Amino acid sequence: MRIFIVASDEPIFLVPYVRRVIAECRQAIVGVGVHVPQRQRVPLRRLVATLLLGLIMSSPRQWLRLVGWKARDLAASIGAAATTHHLADVCRDAGVPSYRIDSVNADSTIALLREHRVDVLLHQTPEILQGEVLRTPAVGVLNRHMSLLPAYRGAWPLYWQLANGEREVGISLHLVDEGIDSGAVVVQEAVTRQPGESAASLMARLFDRSVPLTCTALQRLSGGKPPAQPMAEGRIYRTPHPLDVLGFMFRRQMFRVSSAR
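Structure (tokenized):
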């Protein structure tokens, strides 16, 4: 089976995840697309919400590492250092061809998938796929989603599970169709939250479990596309309002203070 990965160049969670998937499935990986979308004007409310969600989902240590990576990028730009935290670096070290992709839906991406005769496209970007790119891989497009689908479809599923007080969260590897997280589930696993566990720690644990689950899903897809399933009926969530995120952060802090007394 021939696997192509397209992912955002996010160094905290996604780059380590892709690195491990490549290590486990190296013989089947024919290429990696580094998703670098064109800059678009983002509504202020969404931008603020995204920044606040980033504070929740990443630990202070991870933010410090991000600052260090940015400094290394500056040093690399003048030839004073080399980087190791980008997808292109991972591909170089693994001997896997890498390509810059502005849009996964673009004709150039579709041509690239056809050139590599891709069976499964592992999709790890926020872009919503539609049309021909979904039909180009021989088996289909596989996506990792941080919930037990069909529950918590849509954006920021882990945040919404935490905000709703779920004690059990999950990971689903599913095929992508024209709907929103409504394709056939290939494999999924429930993960129980630990007492006092931070969102950042839980996110790291979910990504750690995502690697073997991704390998299991790819192995299952080597036998062909699973039977079609009915359209999922779970609620579709959107990016939360910044005030909702601030309220969640405040409640979480108050819970910590009251628990410490």
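Residues 40 and 96 are 30 Å apart (CA to CA). Confidence is low (pLDDT under 50) at residues 254-261.
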